[in-house]
Amino acid sequence: MVAATSLLLFSCVSSKKYKTAQNEYTLLQTRYTSLQGELNTCNDEKANLNRLKTGLENDNAALNGRITDLDKQIDFLKANNTSALKQLEDMSVITSAQAESIKKSMENMGAKDAYIQTLQQQMAHKDSLNMALVLNLKGAIGNLDDEDINIKVDKGVVYIDISDKLLFKSGKFDVTSQAKTVLGKVAAVLKNQPDIEFMVEGHTDNVPYRSGVLLDNWDLSVKRATAVVRMLEKQYGMDPAKMAAAGRGEYKPLAENNSNEGKAINRRTRIVILPQLDQFFQLLETKK
Questions:
Q1: Dihedrals phi, psi of 273, to nearest 5 degrees
Q2: Can you tell me the distance from the alpha carbon of 182 to that of 172, in angstroms, rounded to the nearest whole number?
Q3: Could you report the per-residue pLDDT of 109-121, keeping only the tens digit for each?
Q4: pLDDT higher than threshold 80 for residue 157
Q5: Which of 150, 273, 147, 170 is nearest to 220 (CA)?
Q6: What's the CA gap between 77 and 109, in Å, rounded?
Q7: Which of 110, 120, 188, 257 could be 206's S-S partner, Cβ–Cβ 3.0 to 4.6 Å?
Q8: What 3-state class would DSSP assign to 232?
Q9: Distance from C-alpha of 144 to C-alpha of 161, rounded to nearest angstrom
């Protein structure tokens, strides 16, 4: 009887240990699968960043090659012009004074060519900085779907489009708690670029705003833009002198408003990295 009781207790204890071990194994297996998924995501993002980096390096190499070719062409033309002027002067076709005048004109043309080349180099440099900024933003924000947040460069300007479903509830202009994570990551990158100035634009679809608090979609878009600007200043320490808020209402759509999908695309907040026009005009003044 004692032996049977002991065997039964031993069997119960072993069964409990087995179930506990089995549960721990299941949890570890689930955690392993989750970590493996995160690793795959990180590897995919790393591959994307490497492709962008390679493309940027190739573009830079192509620009440097083009600049080198232009330098050679300028040197060749200068040499040929000098030789032609000397021949004309020796043949008494033109006077020494005329040759000197033409030479000065050629030098002025060369200076203008150098100026144009400098501007091209400055533009190429800015394009490189913009691409680096885009890479940093995409790396910081991570794995959000393109339909929720889109970062791009168009005609030398960086745009960050954030879907309103990440930022606001329907018809509201209070920033949601979910939005704070996204805006915090954007702010962390922009704060590392102290010279950057940007505008926050609010956009809506064409469905009329029906609340009595605001007048229309234009009002709503402005309130949403200022709400984002205030959060960037108050919670993330962005310099208010570097920010502007604007409302576009329904008047700058990205898609047709004749479907739910199109309306969802148009309901967005856009952060526009403003070009440094003052620096460009300073360059014009110092070079002319």
A1: -75, 110
A2: 18
A3: 555 555 555 555 5
A4: yes
A5: 170
A6: 11
A7: 257
A8: helix
A9: 12
